[in-house]
Amino acid sequence: MEKGNSGLVGNQMNGIRQAILTLTFLGLLLSSCSKSPVDTVFFDFSGNRGVYIVNEGNFMYGNSSLSFYDPAAKRVYNQIFQARNGVPLGDVAQSICLWNGIGFIVVNNSGKIYVIDSHTAEFKGSISGLSSPRYVHVINSEKAYVTDLYSRKITVFNPQTLQVIGSILVGNSQADFNQHSTEQMIQYKNRIFTNCWSNDNKILVINSDTDQLIDSIEVFKQPNSLILDKNNKIWVLTDGGFEGSLYGNEQPGLLKIDAETHEIERTFRFPAGNHPFNLSVNPTKDTIFFLNKHVWKMAVTDKRLPEKPFIASEHTDYYGGFYSLGIDPLNSEVYVGDAIDHRQYGIIYRYSASGKIIDQFKAGISPGDFGFKTE
Amino acid sequence: MKFKVILCLLVLVFIAEKIEAQKLTDTIPIQEVQVFGKRTIEEAGMLVTHIDTLEFQMMKAQTVSELLSSFSPVFLKSYGRGSAATASFRGTAPSHTQLYWNGIKLNSSMRGDVDFSLFPVYFIDNISLLHGGSSLQSGSGALGGSVLINNKPDWTNKLSIGYVQTVESYSTVKEYINFGFGNGKVQFKTRLFSDRSKNDFPYFNYGVLPMHETKQKNAAYKKSGILQEVYLRLNNQTLSAKIWAYQSDRDLPQLMSFEGDARKETQNDQNYRAIFSWKYITEKSKLEWIGGASLNELDYFRSSTESGFVNFNSQSKEKSYTSQVNFDWNPKETLSFNWSLNTTFDQVSVFDRVQKSGYDKNQLAMSLLNAGHFQLAPEVSLSLLFRSEIYNSKLIILIPTLGIEYYLNEKKESSLKMNLSRNYHQPGLNDLYWIPGGNPDLKPENGYEGDLSYSLSARHEKTTISAQITGFASMINDWIVWQPASNGAYYWEASNLRKVFARGAEFQTSFQSEIANAVLINLKGNYSYTATSNVDAVPSVDGSRGKQLIYIPKHKANIFAEADFRNYYLKINAPFTGKRYTSSNNVESDYEKVLNPYCLVNLSCGKQFNLNVFKVDASLNIENLANADYMAILWRPMPGRYYSLTLMFNYRK
Hints:
The complex is a heterodimer.
Chain A: H1 2-31, E1 50-55, E2 65-70, E3 75-77, H2 80-85, E4 93-99, E5 102-107, E6 112-117, E7 123-127, E8 133-140, E9 143-148, E10 153-157, E11 164-169, E12 185-188, E13 191-196, E14 202-207, E15 212-218, E16 223-228, E17 233-238, E18 253-258, E19 264-269, E20 277-281, E21 287-292, E22 294-299, H3 316-319, E23 324-327, E24 334-338, E25 345-351, E26 357-365, E27 367-373
Antiparallel strand pairs in A: 1-2, 1-27, 2-3, 4-5, 5-6, 6-7, 8-9, 9-10, 10-11, 12-13, 13-14, 14-15, 16-17, 17-18, 18-19, 20-21, 21-22, 23-24, 24-25, 25-26
Chain B: H1 2-21, E1 48-50, H2 53-58, H3 64-71, E2 75-78, E3 85-88, E4 97-101, E5 104-105, E6 126-131, E7 145-150, E8 159-168, E9 172-182, E10 186-197, E11 202-205, E12 212-215, E13 221-234, E14 237-251, E15 263-281, E16 285-304, E17 309-332, E18 335-352, E19 357-377, E20 380-391, E21 394-407, E22 414-425, H4 429-433, E23 445-460, E24 463-484, E25 492-515, E26 519-534, E27 555-565, E28 568-577, E29 598-599, E30 602-611, E31 614-623, E32 642-652
Parallel strand pairs in B: 4-7
Antiparallel strand pairs in B: 1-6, 2-3, 4-5, 6-7, 8-9, 8-32, 9-10, 10-13, 11-12, 13-14, 14-15, 15-16, 16-17, 17-18, 18-19, 19-20, 20-21, 21-22, 22-23, 23-24, 24-25, 25-26, 26-27, 27-28, 28-29, 28-30, 30-31, 31-32
């Protein structure tokens, strides 16, 4: 060090110039080690059954991603949206809805829906300008709905042209809180049922022919998911909010509602401190599944909540157990996502219908939703 | 790109050539340079870095965030131009770097961190860093280190007026004014500043389809402030008052991938701070009382401008009151003791009118410092200090640190220093009480730290060289993280989950010389290596064990070079930031978002005009000279090359 510098003193001006040049050069050299373009990767999943996994990533990190798992080959393809299309999926991808050879990926905090070819993951178009979109439900080839956490409206679009064709206002001006947020959707006849989760306790009923709000069903606090069983009963899981919330909080619950009459037929309560979510149903629609640290299941005829988990998580002490759940609509296999610390690739466990582990693999950060490609 | 590189080099060659051509002997004003290595007994065994006047000068129209980022081993995580910036000192969390303004801690009592982008360099007279355990001198809890910013009176000033204006790309105008007057007994000084920018820099958006050239939207900011100081000196007493008022209104831009409906998202900060101090100095002792009040408000607002609804409208108010009594006693030149008793009361109130959630809490903390500094032999000195603290009615009896300094030669040109300490960092009020997920049962984060450094300085005629290399290691237990609640709830929760091992090295060097009585050159280099990892990741599936914490680079460096010739100067500053991971298991692949290393080259050239009592300085600055395309944070665009013109005017009598 000392030697080098005394040389500089000796050489005076040349030294300075050299030093400046070296510095600049070094700077340019260092700054030029930025990313090199990555080649497009082409996928062909046509003819394969498979599971799309939507990985949420972290809020305001823009690192959500899409994975595809081929159950026959037991092979997973991660980051397929970026690999195929050269851009990231966006910030907090919430859900995927597969319909007619295309997939609608709802990217919540990017305010958009990316539409892909479900065989190749190729970008087909997008619906942008949304507020905080959550789920897509396709009613027919001319009409689909998008729910939203904040905007107090359901956006109606054409699933073929991707044009927004209308909206259904669901605002509750009487409420102290920002109601109604809309979440998941199920369809019975021409009625769409959607749960209002955030600081809310309603199931809204919309006539899908007229796009009119026709009824609302009061349930327990914070309904987070819903399904329709084989007897046309709607099951609603509520998480009860959290302690300290001004909206109030209560024990989580499960409700069974008749889809025809909108009457609540049976209710169940979980012990305080439980946090059930992600209600799902098997293909025969006679058994419901949900997460509450572990995976639980109960028959739609059961009169009591299950006492023992169907599949137990080993890591509940630190990370609160499993994070996402999906049931294969063809063979009833159970896919469970474990987000670990939500800052690294999550693990997907694949179980047989009887709960035996078949495979496990890593998907993206915070795997949150499954989309089963059955065609 | 190649063309630009060549162009840059040509410009530099031309400038250097010009300097050479004008090789004439002349007197040049030499600015005051503080050299590390020279220290008082109070600093014996302590690892302190002073940011020197030259660096200060170059960053006069910038913020402390940019200053630290360019001239210190501290890593600043900045969300972009004009945006919030938090610090990571020695690989620790933002709340582990503490900021003291004239002795009063300014960290947010809610979040624990400091937004360094809210401190204009113009409002500060000197900055120093206390590394690692040496920070216990200023207060506990700085597991990484502390940053001390101070204001000082200039008793020789009769009347001084200063004005600085910077006109910068992206509709940016910065203005700074200072006005001071007084005599040897009384001094008044007023500083004002305003910094506003549309901040609509162009960038290539590769976060959406189709990729396209675009301009940054919703990133405008407007900052202004005033600092008033009054000093009074009577025999052996000094009284002072400092009042700081600051307002920052910032629009918050969205990520590159955002394509949602139009949003208005803003953060407004208001800070009011006042410090009164009274000092009584005798030959061998100093008694000081400092009283401080700090009122801060942060308003966060987000709405959808199209649909006309508001998502968030939150107000966070923090009030904190501090009283501190210091007593220093120097019975001999080789012996010094100090005692300090600090009492701080914090009040916090957070409420979101839309989400209808928030909390109100307060806390009382007391800290007693006992310190002794001993020069045992001409070549050996020792510092021993410990703090005892009461925090929310809990007592931590002993927070010790021991520093030893050993001079390796008689001229005190080289020395070895060692510091060992234990430290505690109390959780922020958000960690404890945020709804939902705050955890009132959190324990303080606590760590053992040690560092060893070797420093060398030498002076030969008009050349000064100094260098310092430091190795450090710290083990921090009960590191607080927010992550999914262990009860399985959908919200996240604070818990004492990690055990973090941070270790590394810091290297600093500087060289100053005057050549042929004509050219003054000044070179400075700075490099830090920081490996910081969670060594206690829990289940076997967790791949984060032993991996570098996210957003903390292993390598950080900066180079500063200045050449002054007659009244011309050329300054180059090149901060380098190494690769940063964004996932806890540090995966890397073509599609994995690892943030690539980048180096910015900033250049400033100008001329000073000395006209008796007037001094004028005009400079042209080029930021990001190489037009580097980089991301400091995932999917947040950063500006390419941009320019500014700065005009400084000073009158002093």
